[in-house]
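Thread: Newbie trying to understand structure tokens

Hi all, I'm a second-year student working on a class project, and my supervisor (Dr. K.) asked me to get a predicted structure for one chain before our next meeting. I've only ever worked with sequences, so writing a 3D structure as a token string is new to me. If someone could post the tokens and maybe explain what I'm looking at, I'd be very grateful. Here's the chain:
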Amino acid sequence: MVGVLPAALLLLGLLGSGKGKNEELPLYHHLFDNYDPESRPVREPEDTVTVTLKVTLTNLISLNEKEETLTTSVWIGIDWQDYRLNYSKEDFGGVETLRVPSELVWLPEIVLENNIDGQFDVAYYANVLVYEGGFVTWLPPAIYRSTCTVEVTYFPFDWQNCSLIFRSQTYNAKEVEFTFAVDDNGEPVNKIDIDTAAFTENGEWAIDFCPGVIRHHDGSSADSPGETDVIYTLIIRRKPLFYIINIIVPCVLISGLVLLAYFLPAQAGGQKCTVSINVLLAQTVFLFLIAQKIPETSLSVPLLGRYLIFVMVVATLIVMNCVIVLNLSLRTPTTHTVSSRLRHVFLELLPRLLGSGSPPEGPRAAWPPRRASSVGLLLRAEELILKKPRSELVFEGQRHRHGTRTAALCQSLGAAAPEIRCCVDAVNFVAESMRDQEAAGEEVSDWVRMGKALDNICFWAALVLFSVGSSLIFLGGYFNQVPDLPYPPCIQPEPAPTSISPPISSRK
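---
Reply by user tm_fold:
Sure, no problem. This is what the structure looks like when written as tokens:
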């Protein structure tokens, strides 16, 4: 080790005596032998250092809605002038740029104020470039995780307003003044710069605007100089295709299945309730998935959450309707009586309004045919029961079938034999029971038709409610667009390549 240092000095001497000697080492000693990186580069204490800032976005990594955190990858370009690093390249062999470690040079100590993970500084301390005339440039990369308040009212058709707030950690507004960098045309770059060649597009978010502003804060007292912030705003718009395909379309289709319950018979109340409750459980699963995505806030309800709550209310109403229709369809004459008003509304008015036609006038025409004797007895019993004795009622038909002589014989036999009179009473009882049973069957049929009419009107009401409610909710998200702000678009479209024809001489 003792002989290494003289050898190195001898080598440097030989290189320095040559024609192409390295002038960076003398320049380094010339600039940094008496340089103090802790003091500001000003001649007088009241002077201000002007710092030029330019932020270049290379990747919008993610926006975590649950944690309300924006993760970005940026390059921070910082320029200033340090009079202590002034030199002329003619004096040092034409050296135009000197690269030195950042810890050896004074830095304005710019940090991200609204970070969320405690990483205020850059990710990598790159070298500082020192140019002729004392101009200093520093371009360190950084990955920032900043706070971003997420507005979930129109989720997943939403757009967010996030900010990156930079401030000097050590110096106030009087000691360090921030300005925006200028482009090749002399215009200030008062927005986040995005190099389309190096930018990686995010699959979930699109950047619409990214303006920047320098904000001055007055001090707490009149003598306090205050502070200066450089605020870059990222207005990003969500790409909703993922949520449309994976959540919205399945949710709408599953919710539409609840309307199929109306196509089941009115008496199938158990099956109707089963279909509706299954759809209700599926909607609850979707609501749970959305709750895991959005932040736990009570300030607003997301659009997709409002839609799920709406269809859950519709499914609940359909379950209640199925129970009411089942109760109406299973009524009997022994428990309820059909009033004329209910019969007019449900059996005449509603079918006419829905276009399903009025109930049949003679339902008895559809009954199965009976024997001629039974039909004649049933039709004439009601007419003659109060006018003739029971024995004559039975033998009235015998006169038409066997003649007057046979009928007279039968009447005499009826008067002579009391057992035959008992048979007549039994036949009358059977006829009256059948008439009561048929009347009860008609009333039960009326209750069933009332249930069907109520099912029809509720089906159309549920269909209109489901369609109109879904359309209004999703139209609110469709019209939630980023407003037209007075800022240029963040990503400028690349100019179309123009084909230039070669000159005529070159063609030849």
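A couple of things are worth pointing out once you decode it. The domain at 24-239 is CATH 2.70.170.10 (Acetylcholine Binding Protein; Chain: A,). The chain has a mean pLDDT of 78. Feel free to ask follow-ups in this thread.
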